[in-house]
Amino acid sequence: MESSPLALISLVLTIAVYYGCKWLYRRHRRIWFAPILLAPLILGAIVLLAGIPYPVYNADARWLVWLLGPTTIAFAVPIYDQRDIIRRNPLTLTIGVIAGVVLGIGSSYLLSRLFQLPDEVTHSLLSRSVSTPFAVVATDAFGGSRELTSLFVVVTGVFGMAIGETVMRLLPLRSRMARGAMFGAASHGAGTAKAREIGDEEGVVASLTMTMAGIAMVLISPLLGAWL
Amino acid sequence: MATSRAASLLRLLAQLLLIFAIWFATDWFARAVHSPIPGSVIGLGAVLALLMSGLMPADTIRRGAEWLLAEMLLFFIPPCIAVVQFGTLFKAEGLPLIAVIGLGTLIVMAGTALVVDVVFRWEHRRRIRAKSRRRELAGVL
């Protein structure tokens, strides 16, 4: 796609709306101001109302998506920082990650079948519980669409933020690790941000679980993809 | 003040370039050997190995990595906007989709939390027992 002034404007607009939403959320910590919810909504509305065709919008904006590759590498730093927790509770973390990934793929697959969703949608849903850089790579192997998966990941994140604390109160959880792991495994970055508000240990465990679940999802996706 | 801000910005840029370079290298490698594991995850593993072994101090890439992780949401807004193309899909399957994601998230949350709670208690008890056994042993000696 040839780059056009409209494409450049779209890129600048995307960055401006994103930082605008971030600024707003810093001042008002309400879920409907969360950038993960508000920024795509505002931009989607603009693109739709202005009638900007998606290929034009994406001509320059795709450079932002390119940054997801390097961001995956950046996850090495938080894992390294939290190596003490890995050494102390290797089994808890490993089993938490396995449970999260198996439940994530399994629940998406079975519920999609139950509601009779089309195959492309089902395959795009499988990796929705992990962080976007990992989810879009895994969805390639599952035969899903990167765009649909990105959206499902976002909706999952918002959902996890919204219901997380209620789930936490309803379950008889005794350990901080369980409270952290459920946010990281079920709703990746958005959930991890919420876990950080609840407590330091919850935040660290959520972040580790999220990263390790992302890696696990990418590693098993070629095996599972071949079988699908 | 202004110079220190410029220096800090330059450092961030240099660290970002280093991470991009690692990404290019591992992505090229993954393509060259037809690796089923994508280059970005190989890069993650390689950097983690360098950090753990002490060959690369974490401060070499910390600022760059933390910036990328903090702004990650910006990088996946564009594919979300692509859904304006899928208008008909959401008209037809919008509600079931929300149900699948909502129920699915609930299942992953509750299931993971309960499993981790049980395993953690077991692992915690085992560690405490191992510690007290070591202490007993030390007492005997």
TrEMBL record, chain A:
UniProt KW keywords = Membrane, Transmembrane, Transmembrane helix
Asked if the record carries the keyword Transmembrane helix, the reply is yes
**Keyword Transmembrane on this protein?**
yes
Superkingdom of this protein's organism: Bacteria
Q: How does it sit in the membrane?
A: Multi-pass membrane protein
What does UniProt give as the signal peptide span?
none
Indicate the transmembrane segments per the record.
6-25, 32-57, 63-80, 92-111, 151-171, 204-227
Annotated compartments: Membrane
Predominant localisation class: membrane
Mind telling me what this protein is named? LrgB family protein
Source organism of this protein record = Jeongeupia naejangsanensis
From TrEMBL, chain B:
Q: Does the keyword Hydrolase apply?
A: no
Query: What Pfam families does the record point to?
Result: LrgA (PF03788)
Family annotation (InterPro entries): LrgA/CidA
Q: Does the keyword Membrane apply?
A: yes
Q: What is this protein called?
A: CidA/LrgA family protein
**What domain of life?**
Bacteria
* Major location category of this protein: membrane
Residue stretches spanning the membrane: 12-30, 36-55, 67-90, 96-120
Q: Which UniProt keywords apply?
A: Cell membrane, Membrane, Transmembrane, Transmembrane helix
Origin species: Jeongeupia naejangsanensis
Q: Where in the cell is it found?
A: Cell membrane
How does the protein's chain sit in the membrane according to the entry? Multi-pass membrane protein
